[in-house]
Design goal:
There is one protein chain. The protein contains ten helices and eleven strands. By secondary structure, the chain is of the alpha+beta class. This is HTH-type transcriptional regulator NimR.
Length: 271
């Protein structure tokens, strides 16, 4: 279950009525977009429809028990029908979700995963969400078919970050996800969470497969991706993420992504 620090107000409510998420009748695709000033989370639940959920900005934590990950904006999480899960945003929530009739989920993955959300998919879901309820027009039906075609063609995305299981480590991961530019050292984080530095180092590597330093570097790079895609200057992104120099940020970005921030931004904008 996603954790919070007990200080930041969090909206804990479903994006649509549970009865709609379980409805066998109705459109093949139910879509909703939402924007709010507070973080959002949904605690453990399941519904009959499959679900896509994505942030337009920031990060999402997604937990299905076996699958725990941080997901950057412009990527989407697929949750098959009936799968119990919990989702939380880091920072104010701005994003969307689509609920897919299980009768049309046959061509979609049987397991949860993170996928690249194409611009066409995002635009179609935003359009569907803007239409009021009621009998669908032929145009709406055609657009829902476009969404399903895009879902079937989604490509898996390796840009996720595993979350630790230990509650103390999850508290650190939560705080860093909320403020990736925080400059606390690992020993300071250990004291903050009630751990010894050695325990933090050992347990983090055991539970995520990465050192704490490597995990934090990947987190910062994930946070940088949507900012760069929107055209933010590399220098500003570096400073916002807590780097003391632009060159240090470029080196970290290249280590994770295999390219420079400027080259990544150019590639995304061409797409």
């Amino acid at each position: 279950m996603p954790l919070d620090d007990g200080l930041t107000p969090i909206v804990d409510a479903p994006l649509i009525e549970p009865a709609q998420a379980d409805a066998a009748q109705g459109p093949d695709v139910l879509a909703v977009c939402q924007r709010q000033s507070a973080p959002r989370r949904t605690t453990w639940h399941a519904h009959a429809r499959g679900q896509l959920v994505s942030a337009d900005r920031g990060l999402l934590s997604v937990d299905t028990g076996a699958f725990r990950s941080l997901v950057p904006a412009a990527y989407t999480v697929w949750l098959p029908p009936g799968l119990a899960h919990a989702v939380q945003s880091h920072g104010p929530f701005e994003g969307w979700s689509a609920y897919i009739d299980p009768a049309v989920c046959g061509s979609l993955p049987a397991q949860p995963g993170v996928f690249h959300a194409s611009a066409l998919l995002r635009a179609a879901i935003h359009r569907l969400a803007a239409w009021t309820s009621g009998p669908w027009t032929p145009r709406q039906t055609r657009l829902a078919a476009v969404v399903l075609d895009e879902l079937a063609a989604m490509t898996p995305a390796p840009l996720t970050l595993p979350l630790p299981r230990d509650a103390r480590l999850r508290r650190i991961a939560q705080a860093l996800s909320d403020d990736p530019g925080c400059e606390r050292r690992s020993d300071q984080w250990a004291r903050w969470a009630g751990l010894s530095p050695r325990t933090l180092s050992r347990r983090f590597a055991q539970e995520t497969g990465m050192s704490f330093t490597a995990w934090r570097t990947c987190l910062r790079v994930l946070c940088a991706l949507p900012w760069l895609a929107e055209g933010a200057p590399v220098k500003r992104v570096a400073w916002d993420l807590g780097y003391s120099s632009v060159s240090a940020f470029i080196a970290a970005f290249r280590q994770v992504m295999g390219t420079t921030p400027a080259a990544y931004r150019a590639t995304v904008q061409q797409r």
